[in-house]
Amino acid sequence: MAKVEYDAFLAVCPSRELLDRISDKWVTLILCALGGGPANPDHDGTGEPRPMRYSELARLLAGVSQKMLTQTLRSLERDGFVTRTVTPTVPVTVTYEVTELGLSLYQAVRGLKVWAETHMDTVLLNRETYDTTPAEG
Questions:
Q1: Helix (H, G, I), strand (E, B) or coil at 91
Q2: Could you tell me the pTM of the whole model?
Q3: Residues of the chain with pLDDT under 50
Q4: Strand partners, 52
Q5: Looking at residue 42, what is its pLDDT?
Q6: Angle at 106 between CA 84 and CA 33, to 5 degrees
Q7: pLDDT (0 to 100) of residue 41
Q8: Which of 66, 86, 113, 129 has CA atoms 20 to 30 A from the CA of 94?
């Protein structure tokens, strides 16, 4: 079978929908957590990939609603970026782990997270300057 060529600049290209999905902040933060995220809050996020329980992810991702975390994890599982493992304990234990495909995306989005953290002060200063400068025209 011939390899299909995708072009996200085209409105009808399915890769555009994938790009929309993977550019979500919660996707980035979940992949960063599973791909090498903090074992503790002071960690720099460059550790080894490790499985995490749903409750661990919920605690780590401050501000994410239960509904959004569940939807995002299901979407990541459907696309093959994470695997979900249910262990029949009391209570049931559910863990999520990044896949090889997910690790390849993690390599890209980790840089985006680091860039945002590194340049936030500059962006805030630029916003303040823009917002206080009278509009021309």
A1: coil
A2: 0.85
A3: 40-43
A4: 96
A5: 44
A6: 60
A7: 45
A8: 113
CA dist., res. 17 & res. 114, Å (int) = 24
Instruction: Give me the phi and psi of 27, to 5 degrees please.
Output: -60, -50
Compute how many other C-beta atoms are within 10 angstroms of the C-beta atom of residue 57. 21
Residues in Cβ contact with 29 at an 8 Å cutoff, skipping those fewer than 6 apart: 61, 64, 113
Structure tokens at 13: 């290209």
96 near 34, Cβ under 8 Å?
yes
Between CA 130 and CA 67 the distance in angstroms is 36
Instruction: Give the model's pLDDT for residue 6.
Output: 93
Domains of the chain by start residue, with CATH: 25-129 (1.10.10.10)
